[in-house]
């Protein structure tokens, strides 16, 4: 697989071709605020390389998963989400996924309900 899909919105955000409000970046991962926030904090955490969703990762991607969740923990601390937060990753069209470049949603700053719709 190539690292980049030229038709992918989030690959274009990684490349800086589409602006985003970045809150974190490292060698493997970037994070930026969702354009349509569903909570006071709503950040998307994504790998720099193109992968469609969590289901497309393999055992060889364990380090990438660690980087994604490590970024989530740091952002939650930075955003003051000590009361709690939610991490969601939609996988596939039926889950509601609309951008097919793996992302974790980090949502916080308000009480959450369960189950999700
Ligand atoms: P999904 O529905 O795939 O789980 O989540 C995609 C998310 O990307 C949605 O929450 C949507 O608001 C967000 N999104 C879509 N286009 C853009 C964009 O151009 N910039 C940013 N920052 N977020 C976007
Ligand atoms: Zn992509």
C-alpha Rg, in Å?
A: 14 Å
Q: Please mark out the parts with pLDDT under 50 across 5 or more consecutive residues, or reply none.
A: none
Can you count the beta strands? 5
The set of bound ligands, ions and cofactors reads:
guanosine-5'-monophosphate, zinc ion
> What sort of overall outline do the alpha carbons produce when their principal axes are compared?
globular
Strand order in the largest sheet: 1-2-3-5-4
Distance between the termini: 33 Å
**How much helix is in the residues?**
10-25%
Features:
alpha+beta; 2 helices; 117 residues; five-stranded antiparallel sheet; 5 strands; binds guanosine-5'-monophosphate; binds zinc ion
Short recap of the structure:
The chain is α+β, with helices and mostly antiparallel strands and 117 residues long.
Describe the overall structure.
- By secondary structure, this protein is an alpha+beta fold.
- It has 2 helices and 5 strands, in the order αβββαββ.
- It has helices at 9-14, 62-78; strands spanning 22-25, 29-33, 41-47, 85-88, 104-108.
- It has a 5-stranded antiparallel β-sheet with strand order 1-2-3-5-4, with helices on one face.
- Strand 2 (29-33) and strand 3 form a beta hairpin.
- The longest helix is centred in the middle third of the chain and has 17 residues, at 62-78.
- The mean pLDDT is 97.
- The protein binds guanosine-5'-monophosphate (5GP) and zinc ion.
């Amino acid at each position: 697989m190539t690292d980049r899909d030229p038709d992918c919105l989030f690959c274009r955000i990684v490349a800086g071709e589409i602006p985003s409000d970045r809150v974190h970046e490292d060698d493997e991962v970037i994070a930026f605020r969702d354009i349509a926030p569903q909570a006071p904090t709503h950040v998307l955490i994504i790998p720099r390389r193109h992968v469609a969703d969590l289901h497309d990762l393999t055992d060889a991607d364990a380090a990438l998963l660690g980087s994604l969740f490590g970024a989530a923990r740091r952002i939650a601390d930075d955003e003051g989400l000590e009361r709690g937060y939610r991490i969601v990753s939609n996988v596939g069209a039926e889950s509601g996924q609309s951008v097919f470049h793996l992302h974790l949603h980090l949502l916080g700053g308000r009480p959450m309900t369960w189950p999700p719709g």
